[in-house]
Design goal:
It is built from nine helices and ten strands. By secondary structure, it is α/β, with parallel strands linked by helices. The protein has a single domain (about 25-225), classed as Alpha-Beta Barrel (TIM Barrel), CATH 3.20.20.
């Protein structure tokens, strides 16, 4: 627990910014949307978004992930112009107030490029560079790290009867293909982060299998990110049913298990509570 299992030690970003993988990192989620599944609308205004981002920095976040389009199941896409209007003022303002590494959660090349120009460091693409062919060009030209996430279909269709014969092995094969695509398009391996996409075209058993088999994705020698926070599978495990904001306990359990199974980054809504849980985990591990 004292050192992340990733082969990568440090990922250089902008001036005075880097990700050091000496221990697991916490990515704080900032949805500047009216319709995200967990906190849609709470941070839709720039002022509210910046206040929340700075709160997460104070709570111990290592990265802030800013998204302007909901990717919840069934979500409809928004235009690039609308997404730009939502995210660019937030990215720009946050960069002026903090050196925290910023990722832009988008699959659109125009949004990613503008966000990087405004001060973002990382591209977080739910489509793993499949939905916009120009995004790979932007990533290669800017040398921005890219988070490649696995998803079946699109947010609008991904939960329409997803099926796998072996979820973990099929995701591993997907990562192998996407890494090769990146290498062929000028994006080096040391700029990649992998996300198995919990909740994105997955059944309950698939999400549990991903967490149980997370070590399988360490074969690629790049950092692995897990985003299980407040996802619906937690409510499915809890027989009484839970709303998204009632899934804190399950979210922390998933984050702790993810770290124990090899995750380098956990993407979460509840930064303070997750940071506390990981400090306890680290203290126990260092005593053993």
């Amino acid at each position: 627990m004292t050192k992340s299992p990733s082969a990568m030690v440090e990922l250089r970003l902008g001036p005075n910014r880097s990700l050091r993988f000496e221990q697991p990192l916490v990515m704080g989620i900032l949805n500047v949307t009216p319709d995200s599944f967990s906190d849609g609308g709470r941070y839709a205004s720039s002022d509210a978004a910046i206040t929340h981002a700075l709160e997460m920095v104070e709570q111990g976040a290592d990265i802030i992930d800013i998204g302007g389009e909901s990717s919840r199941p069934g979500a409809k896409p928004v235009s690039a112009d609308e997404e730009l209007t939502r995210v660019i003022p937030v990215v720009s303002s946050l960069r002026k107030q903090s050196t925290i590494p910023i990722s832009i959660d988008t699959y659109k090349s125009t949004v990613a490029e503008a966000a990087l120009d405004a001060g973002a460091d990382i591209i977080n693409d739910i489509s793993a560079l499949r939905m916009d062919p120009e995004l790979a060009t932007v990533a290669a030209a800017t040398h921005a790290p890219v988070i490649l996430m696995h998803m079946l279909g699109t947010p609008r269709t991904m939960q329409e009867n997803p099926h796998y014969d072996n979820c973990v092995e099929e995701i591993a094969a997907f990562f192998r293909e996407r890494i090769e695509f990146c290498l062929q398009n000028g994006i080096p391996r040391d700029k990649l982060i992998l996300d198995p996409g919990i909740g994105f075209g997955k059944r309950l058993e698939d999400n549990l299998a991903i967490l149980a088999g997370l070590a399988r994705f360490k074969q690629f020698d790049v950092p692995v990110l897990v985003g299980a926070s407040r996802k619906s599978f937690i409510g499915q495990v809890h027989t009484g049913g839970l709303t998204a904001r009632q899934r804190l306990g399950g979210s922390i359990a998933a984050a702790v298990v993810a770290i124990q199974r090899g995750a380098d980054i956990v993407r979460v809504h509840d930064v303070a509570e997750t940071v506390e849980a990981l400090k306890v985990l680290r203290a126990i591990t260092e005593e053993s």
